[in-house]
Amino acid sequence: MKTYTLELCGLRRELPVIEVAPGLKIASFVILGDTELVCRVAPEIVKRLPEIDAIVTPEAKGIPLAFEISRLLGMNYIIARKNIWPYMDHPVIDEFYSKKKKRLFCLSGDDARTLRGKRVAIVDDVISSGETIEAIRRLIEKAGGTVAAAAAILVEGDAEGLEDIIYLKELPVFRE
Ligand SMILES: Nc1ncnc2[nH]cnc12
């Protein structure tokens, strides 16, 4: 299997290069289970964050990073969920289309109330098209919060041109 060597904060990972669409390959970067990497990168992201009152991460791959950043900052974090569940009281929802498929993110009513009037950092593992970040931004604004920062470990592809993103490294995409 072809791999891409990622060097990050003194660590090295061999990322499998995977075809995700005809003629497009990405280096698969998954932090789930990688405690060493999460704990190494989180302080570097924390150093770059502005003043914030709250952290939001989209479900699911960025959750360990949001946990560690929240632990370092001594505050909780909120997960924007991908499904509306019956146990969510008055959820706040953002629906959008991505590659012709309907997607959504939502906040439970409780989490939405927590964000009202807060300066929020959106945290994720990788930012690529920026669609997820924009959906989470709309959701936070619907809840009455303000996005103070969007931060990720890596950006790839189109995201390299997005403005105002905090990130540690760029990840290449491979087009044929
Ligand atoms: N390179 C990548 N690896 C894993 N998840 C991703 N999501 C977007 N880009 C990704």
TrEMBL record:
Pfam families per UniProt: Pribosyltran
Protein name: Adenine phosphoribosyltransferase
Keywords on record: Glycosyltransferase, Transferase
InterPro entries registered for this protein in UniProt: PRTase-like, PRTase_dom
Top-level taxon of origin: Bacteria
All residue ranges annotated as the Phosphoribosyltransferase domain in the record: 51-164
Organism: Syntrophaceticus schinkii
NCBIfam families linked: PRK07322.1
GO molecular function, one term: glycosyltransferase activity
